[in-house]
Input
Amino acid sequence: MTETINAAAAGTWTLGDLPVNRLGYGAMRLMTKADGSPSDRDTAIAVLRRAVELGVNHIDTAAFYFQASRSANELINSALRPYPEDLVIVTKVGPGRGPSGDWLPPARPEQLRGQVEENLRQLGRDHLDVVNLRIGEGLERGSGSLSDRFGALAELREAGLIAHLGISNVTAEHLKEAQAIAPVVCVQNQYGLTARREDDELVGLCADQGVAFVPFFAIASGTENAGVTAVAREHGVSPAQVRLAWTLHRGPNVLAIPGTGNPAHLAENVAAAALRLSEEDIERLGDGPATNGHVPADSI
Ligand SMILES: NC(=O)c1ccc[n+]([C@@H]2O[C@H](COP(=O)([O-])OP(=O)(O)OC[C@H]3O[C@@H](n4cnc5c(N)ncnc54)[C@H](OP(=O)(O)O)[C@@H]3O)[C@@H](O)[C@H]2O)c1
Output
């Protein structure tokens, strides 16, 4: 791939009234290196700035993305403020962590305002572009009703603290339930070529309704797959790039948010915005097994 690297090559999608390039960035990996040790702060800041230089204008984050000495929101604030006008920062609420990093019980409806305000303070914003209500614990889809919690967020949207709402780790039933309360601009679930393919239907449902589907672990859920290796070799790209291109190929409403703290991986991931897979490639890739793949145990 010799084209100029730019996230815009993936095309755009509009989250509510906020246009974004379909190739974005997830901030969960900024705090630690691949071996689990703390990231180098200057490198993390440089990765964020480089992402924006490469056309990324959709960053996914959360106040609960932190470890002892680094916080994703603080890094985003330090690296990118004053924020570019076209930058859309998507955060999520629901899970909570104490100061030592221990997981707290999921937030009750009345606790969500505090979580929204925590994101506002850390990001240095007076409103949040998009807030996902993330239900369920760990990587499991949530069960039961989300209406009380989503209703609480809808009130914060009415109050002007949030521009648009999304939901995460959900089923089609949750989407319907949330839409009865307020508009939903995005759904964020684990999903990838070889992971959670049971959500193929939900991706289509979101497409029909003009809702963005924003999978996490598009790269990380990857199990070894001969099809990926072969297609990557033929295109002269990496398996991670093939997985991202496959994600973007799922539909115009599907957005990629690959996470990395590694500058070379960042460039590689943004370059995947320009990678086009043929129908023959897709057919070969589509035969991959639908499994939950491998995901790091400490991820959320
Ligand atoms: N809603 C939710 O429940 C939820 C849950 C999890 C994550 N998320 C969001 O989704 C985003 C994406 O998830 P993710 O970051 O965990 O998964 P990902 O983007 O699928 O994969 C990230 C992992 O792959 C590695 N990687 C990235 N680019 C690579 C490349 N070009 N070649 C080889 N390895 C590469 C990263 O390590 P290096 O740092 O070494 O590159 C990291 O270990 C997160 O950042 C977060 O914002 C949301």
